[in-house]
Design a protein that fits this description.
alpha+beta; seven-stranded mixed beta sheet; five-stranded antiparallel beta sheet; 22 strands; 42% helix; binds adenosine-5'-diphosphate
Length: 658
């Protein structure tokens, strides 16, 4: 007998192993730190209704089958058992949902396994004790919701007040905070200890309570935490109050997301934005500087050309001079387009609202265009409806720019035939009028596929290597921007080889009392040079550049003026200024700049206000605004053109202002 007992004892392990693998109770051994199973017998598949392999591949299968209401109690039992360092077996009953959907009751006996003082695993035996009432729809919904929450990377937590600080936290807490969920259940304040010292004020438990009790409105808070490894993570958390059916505040729930990657992206984006802004600023500074530097020699070329044109020349010399003037003018338009483009990019393009004599604006523009059209042998026809308001409120320079750009293109892209310009009034009353300007040509036309892109920046139909026409493809982009800023629209229709039609519709305020001095149908001025008026005025030109001095002096003398030159501001201020009818002031002067010089002149008591006209290559909006702010009356952009000088003399002549 003793011999048999000894033999059995010697082989007890293998007998028990055989017994355990073939019994109807589920025998299992699983890790304490995770839900991983070291062993489970075949009976699992009978009780859970799922294959053993499924559990070994995914330990969650065990927990997920447990009815939600029982699951947390089960987890807490395990966690308490691990902490208690008890070697005692504990018994528990819970419900689980089999794969067929049936809910059954099981009883479990569980024993912790220690390695030294540390609980490393649990072993146990689970067996079926009976059926449980089937779960309702709410139970399933709760179960699925719990399943979803447990899989989520976002931390969900629920806490009660005082006696039950943390009721629930999902496994994502472990991933995000780097601490176990059990540690939080056992020590509810431990999450706050992880909060970065500098961010603790933002998320103090008092703040949480205030938010929960609606003292402060609920909102999301960003703060940093430090994981036990020292790694810092960014968290975005939102809290909600939980109230009983009676409205009593019973707890608080929250959602916390790890947004470390988003914060890093934001910082990188912010950095990139700062770099881009700095680069853009550098580009603007460069353009402003280039604009100034290019305008200075261009001033010399165009100025001297204008002076030479007034001298006696052979026909051949005059035609050579025309080529120089036209090339200079093209260069100037290009420079102006690039500047406009920069202003648009920086939101610096400002429109003024002034009373415009529409008929005189159109006749001036059509005179210029008629010369260009005539040079190409094209007929420029125009028609302006009799009901078109003669006086409107608009930015006259920009309206001129829109229309002359469209007409200029029509002439540029037409070899034979005609260019038609038409103005109609689509709608008008005593206060406003919607006008339609149409430019039609019989030119090369534009392919349908390219029609949309021509209003884009730097868009040209011709390839860079097969170009027959001048331009950088900015004109229409600027026109479109200007039209849009005037609350208008621009449309185009075109057929290759037949021609194009551009229509601009803009609503304007009108001056109901304005009566046009122009005939309804405009007489397009001929290409002949008109007799220019002379202005016998005494003018002072404050300018340091020798070439510019010569150009201004000669052009002004040709306009009938008597000119004194001051090479800097100090020399100008020493003059008896009251003798001058107008002062022309350069801005960049060696001793003090034109702004300061103007301020000094304005501070003198000269008995009357002498008009001061700035002559500058600085044509950015802020330069212009500063000119007016210091007391200048007008700004003429360099290169100085005879027409601009004549217009300024006409406007500021004391004969006119007397
Ligand atoms: P560009 O300075 O090159 O003329 P625009 O912006 O004024 O630039 O025009 C863009 C492109 O649209 C031009 O390059 C040209 O191909 C096309 N285009 C504009 N107007 C006409 C027109 N009236 N007839 C044919 N093509 C035109």
């Amino acid at each position: 007998m003793a011999k048999i007992a000894k033999k059995i004892n010697a082989n007890l392990g293998s007998f028990l192993s055989h017994f355990v693998s073939s019994t109807h109770e589920v025998f299992w051994v699983r890790a304490a730190a995770s839900d991983e199973f070291y062993y489970v017998n075949q009976a699992f598949s009978d009780v859970w209704g799922r294959p053993v392999n499924e559990l070994l591949a995914n330990a969650d299968v065990w927990m997920n089958a447990i009815v939600v209401d029982d699951r947390e109690a089960y987890r807490q039992h395990l966690s308490r058992l691990a902490q208690a360092q008890s070697t005692q077996c504990f018994h528990l009953e819970y419900r689980l949902v089999r794969s067929c959907g049936a809910t059954i009751r099981v009883r479990e006996s569980c024993q912790p396994i220690y390695a030294g003082r540390q609980c490393v695993a649990f072993m146990g035996c689970t067996y079926r004790v009976g059926e449980a009432p089937p779960q309702g729809r709410d139970d399933y919904a709760r179960q699925f919701f719990q399943f979803f929450i447990e899989k989520s990377d976002t931390v969900f937590w629920v806490s009660g007040f005082k006696d039950q600080p943390t009721v629930y936290v999902n496994p994502a807490y472990q991933k995000v905070w780097g601490k176990s969920c059990e540690s939080l259940i056992l020590d509810p304040g431990s999450w706050y200890e992880s909060v970065h010292e500098e961010d603790r004020d933002k998320i103090s438990p008092k703040k949480l309570m205030d938010a929960a009790s609606h003292i402060t409105p609920p909102g999301s808070t960003r703060f940093r935490i430090r994981r036990p490894t020292g790694e810092v993570r960014w968290i975005r958390e939102k809290n909600f109050p939980i109230r009983s059916a009676l409205g009593e505040l019973i707890g608080c729930a929250g959602i916390a997301e790890d947004i470390t990657e988003d914060v890093r992206w934001e910082a990188e984006l912010q950095q990139a934005k700062l770099h881009a802004e700095a680069a853009n600023q550098a580009k603007s500074d460069f353009l402003a500087m280039m604009s100034h530097e290019l305008r200075t020699p261009l001033n010399a070329i165009l100025g001297m050309t204008q002076i030479l044109e007034q001298s006696s020349l052979t026909a051949e010399q005059r035609s050579q001079l025309t080529v120089i003037r036209q090339s200079g003018s093209n260069l100037l338009s290009l420079l102006n387009e690039i500047l406009d483009f920069t202003k648009i990019e920086h939101g610096n393009l400002k429109l003024v609202q002034e009373r415009v004599d529409l008929h005189s604006l159109l006749s001036g523009m059509l005179s210029d265009m008629a010369v260009q059209a005539a040079q190409k042998g094209l007929s420029l026809r125009q028609s302006i409806d009799a009901d078109v308001a003669p006086f409107i409120f608009a930015d006259s320079k920009r309206l001129f720019q829109i229309l002359s750009n469209l007409l200029g293109n029509a002439i540029k892209y037409t070899k034979h035939g005609y260019v038609n310009f038409q103005v109609t009034s689509l709608h008008s009353n005593s206060r406003e009028a919607t006008l339609c300007f149409t430019v039609e040509d019989s030119g090369i036309g534009i392919e349908k596929a390219k029609l949309d892109s021509i209003f884009g920046r730097f868009q040209q139909i011709e390839s860079v290597y097969q170009r027959k026409h001048d331009g950088v493809g900015l004109g229409l982009a600027i026109v479109k921007e200007l039209v849009t800023r005037m609350r208008g629209t621009i449309t185009v229709s075109s057929e290759p080889g037949v021609g194009s039609q551009f229509s601009v519709v803009i609503p304007f305020e009108v001056d109901p009392f304005g009566v046009s001095t122009q005939p309804a149908a405009l007489e397009v001025a001929s290409a002949e040079i008109c007799e220019e008026a002379l202005y016998p005025l005494t003018v002072l030109v404050v300018e340091d550049n020798k070439i510019n001095q010569k150009i201004s002096k000669t052009l002004l003398e040709q306009c009938g003026c008597q000119v004194t030159i001051a090479e800097n501001a100090s020399v100008a201020l020493k003059q008896s200024l009251a003798q001058f009818d107008i002062i022309f002031m350069d801005l960049g002067l060696p001793d003090m700049d034109g702004f300061q010089a103007t301020e000094k002149i304005r501070a003198l008591d000269l008995g009357r206000r002498i008009p001061i006209v700035a002559m500058t290559a600085h044509v950015f909006t802020h330069d212009l605004e500063r000119c007016y702010a210091v007391g200048m009356d007008e700004v003429i952009a360099k290169p100085i053109m005879r027409e601009d000088l004549l217009a300024a003399l006409k406007k500021w002549s004391p004969l006119v202002h007397a």
